[in-house]
Design a protein that fits this description.
The protein is α+β, with helices and mostly antiparallel strands and about 80 residues long. It contains two helices and three strands, in the order E-H-E-H-E.
Length: about 80
């Protein structure tokens, strides 16, 4: 078991991160099979990004905060958020 890390003690870095991009993986369903397919899609994207030398950093918390806005604007449910 790995202890949960506390990043509140770190001070923010200087400057701005203008090069970051964010991607939201979403789908039309919210059943177990939909989450499985989302995981398969994330795996495929991650492998492709790695092949092109692009680093991905999935946001470790649940995507629940972005689910409502994504659902409102697309009619789909957010599965994960990834930063490149």
């Amino acid at each position: 078991m790995v202890a949960q890390r506390d990043f509140d003690t770190l001070s923010p870095g200087s400057g701005h991160d203008n090069a970051a991009s964010y991607a939201v993986l979403y789908g039309t369903g919210d059943e177990s099979i939909d989450w499985l397919r989302a995981g398969e899609a994330l795996s495929a994207v991650w492998l492709t990004a790695t092949a092109y030398g692009v680093s991905l950093m999935p946001m470790s918390g649940p995507a629940s905060k972005c689910r409502s806005p994504v659902t409102s604007s697309t009619g789909c449910s957010a599965k994960s958020v990834t930063r490149t």
